[in-house]
Design brief:
- With 175 residues, this protein is mainly alpha-helical.
- Helix content is 82%, strand content 2%.
- Strands 1-2 form a two-stranded parallel sheet.
- Helix 1 runs antiparallel to helix 3, helix 3 crosses helix 5 and helix 4 packs antiparallel against helix 5.
- The chain is elongated.
Length: 175
Amino acid sequence: MTQYSVIVVHIYKQVNILLRANYFKVYIMFIEINLRKKLLLSSTLIYLIFLTSIHFIEFYLLITLKGYSEDSANLIPFSTIANYISSLSSYNLSIWFYNLFGIIVAFLPFGVLVALIIKNSYAFVFNFTLIFSTLLELLQYLLMLGVFDIDDIILSLLGSTIGFFIFNIFTKLSF
């Protein structure tokens, strides 16, 4: 064997080792990404179940603490919000806080998860939240398990919007 053939064989072996190592690294990254995606999807499913159950638990609070009837509906935007703000002294502070800020806080992760899993676009997150929260409100009303309140949809949109923008600020800061 000539000196050049030995060098070529040596280079071939080194390249082959590197390719195998990189293939292995890519395979490990694929498994890690797959695992991350599965964890993200399963945590999202748990979150959506939690979010749905909160909406139906809210019905219990509305019936027992505020006396709403099962077929109540508020179709006037900001009327419930204005009522809570203007009648702060009439409500228990925890009820007031839950109804004004609880839905916002509950939907903060929604904006993040929709941006992470489906599409990082504000218009998409807004429309997806609008559809999801409207379906939740309709489901509550139709099954007589809650009250349809347009203000809940507004607060849901506000929460997911804040979550979306916080997510985008943190992703821009980390790069």
